[in-house]
Amino acid sequence: AGGPVVDEARAGAAGGRTPSRIGVAMADTLMWQRQQHPMLQGVYALFLPLLERGIPVSSFVMERAKEAAYMSRFDTIVLSYESFKPLDRAMHTALVDWVKGGGVLLVLGRDGDALDACEDFWWHKNCADSPLAHLLGELQAPGPGKGQWPLGKGWVIRDETSPTRFADPKVAQSTYLELIEQALSKANSAPAPQTGSFCMQRGPFVVAHAETKPLSLKGRLLDIFDPQLTVKEVVELQPGESGLYRDVAPQIEGKRPALLHATHRVMSCQCEGEALSFTLRGPAETPGVARIFIPETNAAQVKATGANGDPVDVTSRAGGDTLLVRFPNAPEGVTVEIE
Prior knowledge:
This protein is an alpha+beta fold and about 350 residues long. It has nine helices and 20 strands.
């Protein structure tokens, strides 16, 4: 998912083309297949070389292949059946239709393991030695080995290199990243932006990590890992540093008092005029902390009460257009009123 913060972090894609939308195929059957040691190397080796360079990538869930809206998220899909198998033929039908509609499918690895040979599975009933053989047949592969060919409005790129080999940085650089660039070119996507960092946003939450290069984010970002819940306008991360933030710009731009973030479970929150009240539940003998947006610079009156109506000690500290409130938690809940 994207937002203003994420878009700015990813800025700089060449030529104004659509940013790369890469998916690595996964399925629930990944949990069924017996893996050779090191476990799941063929899975991680498809993600980590991209993540380490800051190239946007996400899982492509095979079980959702029949959902057209979901498939439209991807320009390029990377697939290997060395670590999992497709559950039914309909997944292949959907993949082929997606390629014909303009997608680029990068097919890696070989077949021939014990599950491929098991005659109880659907591909043998469809006269194929393996799901890989069935898929390549549906994709109209011109022959064995590596190659590239058009299919409808899209393309298929085939390479027999096992994804497990991409755990070697040299092989990842010389083979895997080269294949990814070829796929993006066929999809008319922007070249993979090797920013050396990555940033993603889910709803208001922003996760950022600087891997090999510094990362700068701008906005109104509340630092969730900061005990003071500080709101920052600029975040600077150096290589090796990570952060978890909440984008609070929408609440601040609303020009009304607002609860920006709290450390524990918010049971209710109301804003009437210049008065804001909320109820927070948390374990006993732990501090409840909340950051509040106050649009006016006038001093705020703060009080807190327990579930039984008794007053609770509360402290507050103003900073700019926000207020930090701290009080002892209670499992039954503490109600804070700010006027």
